Amino acid sequence: MELYKQHQIRIYNSLTKSKQEFKPINDGNIGMYVCGPTVYSNVHLGNVRTFMSFDLIYRYLLHLGYKVRYVRNITDAGHLENDADEGEDRISKKARLEKIEPMEVVQQYTVDFHNVMSKFNCLPPNIEPTATGHIIEQIEIIKDILDKGLAYIVDGSVYFDVLKYNETAHYGVLSGRNIEDAIHNTRTLDGQSEKRNPQDFALWKKAKPEHIMRWPSPWSIGFPGWHLECTAMSTKYLGKQFDIHGGGMDLKFPHHECEIAQSKACFEKDPVNYWMHANMLTLNGQKMAKSTGNNILPNEIFTGENTILTKTFAPSVVRFFMLQAHYRSVLDFSGDALEAAEKGFFKLMEAVNNLSSIKAGKISTIDLNSWKDTCYNAMNDDFNSPILIAQLFEAVRFVNLLKLETETLTQEDLTHFIKLINSFIFEVLGLENNVKKDTSAQLSGVVEVLIKLRNDARANKNWALSDQIRDELIEKGIQLKDGKEDTTFTVN
Amino acid sequence: MELYKQHQIRIYNSLTKSKQEFKPINDGNIGMYVCGPTVYSNVHLGNVRTFMSFDLIYRYLLHLGYKVRYVRNITDAGHLENDADEGEDRISKKARLEKIEPMEVVQQYTVDFHNVMSKFNCLPPNIEPTATGHIIEQIEIIKDILDKGLAYIVDGSVYFDVLKYNETAHYGVLSGRNIEDAIHNTRTLDGQSEKRNPQDFALWKKAKPEHIMRWPSPWSIGFPGWHLECTAMSTKYLGKQFDIHGGGMDLKFPHHECEIAQSKACFEKDPVNYWMHANMLTLNGQKMAKSTGNNILPNEIFTGENTILTKTFAPSVVRFFMLQAHYRSVLDFSGDALEAAEKGFFKLMEAVNNLSSIKAGKISTIDLNSWKDTCYNAMNDDFNSPILIAQLFEAVRFVNLLKLETETLTQEDLTHFIKLINSFIFEVLGLENNVKKDTSAQLSGVVEVLIKLRNDARANKNWALSDQIRDELIEKGIQLKDGKEDTTFTVN
Predict the structure, then answer these.
(1) Is any Cβ of chain A less than 8 angstroms from the Cβ of B130?
(2) What pTM, to 2 d.p., does this model score?
(3) Which long-range contacts (CB under 8 A, 24 or more apart) does A316-320 make?
(4) Chain B: nearest CA to A214, how far in angstroms?
């Protein structure tokens, strides 16, 4: 029997602002969409945390035996500098500044993003669609929304008519913003904008002559609005209604609000059953920002090329650190917190390495089922990884007692215990037991000790001992070479 | 001064069947397009060799200081089972067999491809466009070719009219095939095909009801022909005429021939100045084929999970092996050949590791310039990596003589020599000096030898020696623990 039949997950739904029992639309199958990066700069650590949070969620759903179709997009066009549909396209701007083709910008930062995700052991999604790969699908949705009278054309651009939409639906259902208040509080249009109302948003923008990324459409040669791509791609691959939509907290408004409006306008359905939002990462208690220098890139953590940390940390240690906080809590990143996490990580891995040396006993003196239930209950309760990790440290305590044979487990229970620990640590949390200490320096040191002992033996004309040391080293794969001045060695 | 101003490359051009002096269209800038994989299965080793060949070429052009825009596509739609525009789309078929969405197939094998390329240290291209990301561009080209009367529509599909094209141009200019002979020799159409002539090829295919990957077009809901994507993407990112187009030998006909025809029909220009084709890889003297089992996947070489090889090989060793053959020669892959390459690789890396211990002399007794010229001449002569590698072994000989001080180099020459060796090995050949022997087993072995000596000392009541061994080990980072039965150790 699939595990999911035994486990009822509860998810905090940003739409209802409450934890709800999770019921997928199709039993045993889950459609999940997560907003991916806009690839115009190196992925920052806050984004990494968001993607890692959804990686944890994806991994747990897979662990429970669900068939998950996980779609995470790459935004390679249409994301303007600000949310008011003004300013340059972020990728076009970077391309202009670096004097390269926009798709070179896209490639450079897509490669960086994939490398970083892979280092953090985040599983790739099942589909990774791009905005430029779905221009036709976006145009089809715009046609449909125009047909329904919920968008209007101004000089080759198409805008979504939020006020008209709000007459029959509720714009603000996710973010809780009230459209009337918003209209009341926003500045009047300065005459520069083509929009009827500041709340309206672009579905299609006519390209200015200097705008390089452009495609033909029924309205103009131009490019799609940023919000539209996610509607086009999520519904193409997951259907007009699907289970889970995730993203960073900052995307709730306007991005996700606009997605809901577009989908309802076009397909006349609420697109998503469970909206999930991952919380922020701060650095030393403050917002990360390039401008203030309070900023660190993922690779800079591994290489040590940064001014924030005094030592390097392995990706799995950073991952462990991040999963020690719940995805909906703000998390502060600091050297001290990472060092504490590293100690915990090594403690956990040491326990994993010790599992194989535990001997089974005649009876089980540990209540394995109770421990296991606590672990699953934590994850079933809105993916509470910090509680799971606390339970894993409880398991470390068990491992130590089992090694001392103060406690015992039957062979059957021991096998089950080992399987559970491995599942939680490697499969669900996605940690890797590969942070190895390089021992080549120690090897040289120890061989030196022996060379010295052998020199002493030779000085004392103890040829037997001298030969014994040489021969035993050969057996262990070390070949001594006596030179004019000193003795060196090679490793076979 | 950029290096390329001192070095005249000669490239074997498949179009003229001769080596030609290479002159880029824009001085100092190079546009290079290479046909990438169709992502419906794990990338096979023959494809890896092709991409590695162009990686060598790309790296050498970068080394010479050229600004290269290297475009390599991902074919994620339109590649049918056979070249006669018949059969299923390869990706759609795989999706149908595995009961998943075609874009899940695309994602799975794109991720595999990128992982394999990264393991072999192949640099990512500057742009990596997909066929599905350029449907609009392909439709625009078809419209143009139809306008020029060089294509025709049958029941929603569009075919390129090869005979009509051949009236004013030469279809067969690359492959050397004669269209009249081809018509004479091919079977007559069996009435199943919509084509006027078997040589014609699809620009757009109307989708059958079961075909999942489909887009609207002026002619039908369908999908583009395979050859068209490369024309659309190469010209979009490199212009209507560009410098280098590469691919595997098997793509020369019909794929590249059709690309030339499409470009000339649409833009009235020869699209490519230098056509380059990489040769085949055989396995134990025979064609690789899944059906016969004479087949090995890249990852199977690294993990040892295969029935072809008796040991594992590191990616850099395989890369070194492949670059020991010229890209236009057939290369046979076998365990013996890899073992020989591995020995050579370690010899080279040992020399690299020894470079830092060479002391400068008062005069230079080695003719460094002559050696350097031979290296560059090899690469300038159609990227002859085997000759470059032979010269690197000559450099290994130099390193050994320099270590013995039988030969000497002045400090200036020595610095230059070290820089050149590093450039050729790491920058140009793209090898990695990271194939480390894991010495943890040797460390345990050597510590055991010392524990034994210490036990002997204790048995002889030689407490001084026993304490000395313990204390010196602590100094070297090894902590002994005397247990009831035996002595164990931990590494700090």
Answers:
(1) yes
(2) 0.88
(3) A316/A121, A316/A345, A316/A431, A316/A432, A316/A433, A316/A434, A316/A435, A317/A341, A317/A342, A317/A345, A317/A435, A318/A120, A319/A52, A319/A120, A319/A121, A319/A429, A319/A430, A319/A431, A320/A344, A320/A345, A320/A348, A320/A389, A320/A429, A320/A431
(4) 11
Q: For residue B445, what is the nearest residue in chain A, using CA coordinates?
A: A476
Please indicate if any CB of chain B lies within 8 Å of the CB of A363.
no
The conformation of residue A428, written as its DSSP 8-state character, comes to: I
Partner A contacted by B475 (CB < 8 A): yes
| Count of CB atoms situated within 10 Å of the CB of B182 | 15
pLDDT at B440 over 90: no
Please state which CATH class domain B3-278 belongs to.
alpha beta
A308: its two tokens: 């924030």
Task: Please tell me the predicted confidence (pLDDT) of residue B184.
Answer: 66
Q: Give the Cα separation of A78 and A210 in Å (integer).
A: 15
Cα A200 from Cα A256, distance rounded (Å): 14
- pLDDT tens for A201-238 read 999 999 998 888 999 999 999 999 999 999 999 999 99
* B489 touching A (Cβ < 8 Å): no
Residues B156/B162/B166/B168 CA torsion (nearest 10 deg): 20
B38 min Cα distance to partner chain A (Å):
16
- Mutant choice from B109, B119, B443, B452 vs A, greatest count of A C-beta within 10 A: B443
Considering chain A, tell me which residue range(s) the CATH 1.10.730 domain(s) occupy: 302-428
Q: What is the pLDDT of residue B190?
A: 53
**Is A449 close to B472, i.e. CB distance below 8 A?**
yes
Position A190 confidence tier, pLDDT thresholds 50, 70, 90: low
End-to-end alpha carbon distance in chain A:
51
Tell me the pLDDT tens digit for each residue of B22-70.
999 999 999 999 999 999 999 999 999 999 999 999 999 999 999 999 9
Is B476–A128 a contact, with Cβ atoms under 8 angstroms apart? no
Residue B435: band (very low, low, confident or very high) from pLDDT cuts 50, 70, 90: low
B449–A450 C-beta distance less than 8 A: yes
Q: Which CATH architecture has domain A302-428?
A: Orthogonal Bundle (1.10)
Summarize the confidence of residues A163-180 as an average pLDDT.
92
* Shortest CA distance from A438: residue in chain B: B440
Chain B CB contacts of A478 below 8 Å? 442, 445-446
Of B301, B320, B319, which Cα lies nearest the Cα of B311?
A: B301
Strand order across the B29-34 sheet: B67-72, B29-34, B242-248, B272-278
How close, in Å, is residue A439 to chain B by CA atoms?
A: 6
Q: Tell me the pLDDT tens digit for each residue of B197-251.
A: 999 999 999 999 888 899 999 999 999 999 999 999 999 999 999 999 999 999 9
Q: CB contact, 8 Å: A340 with chain B?
A: no
| Residue ranges, CATH 3.40.50.620, chain A | 3-278
| B chain contacts of residue A452, beta-carbon cutoff 8 Å | 472
Residue in A39, A446, A450 to test binding to B, most B beta-carbons within 10 Å: A446
Nearest to B476 among A114, A127, A449 (CB): A449
- Round to whole Å and give the CA distance between B63 and B59: 6
Residues 164 through 223 of chain A touching chain B, CB cutoff 8 Å: 215-216
ipTM value of the model? 0.86
A443 touches chain B (CB under 8 A): yes
Percentage with pLDDT > 70 across chain B? 97
Long-range CB contacts for residues A194-199, cutoff 8 Å, separation at least 24: A194/A154, A194/A155, A194/A157, A194/A159, A195/A85, A195/A154, A195/A159, A196/A152, A196/A159, A196/A161, A196/A163, A197/A161, A197/A162, A197/A163, A198/A84, A199/A162, A199/A163, A199/A171
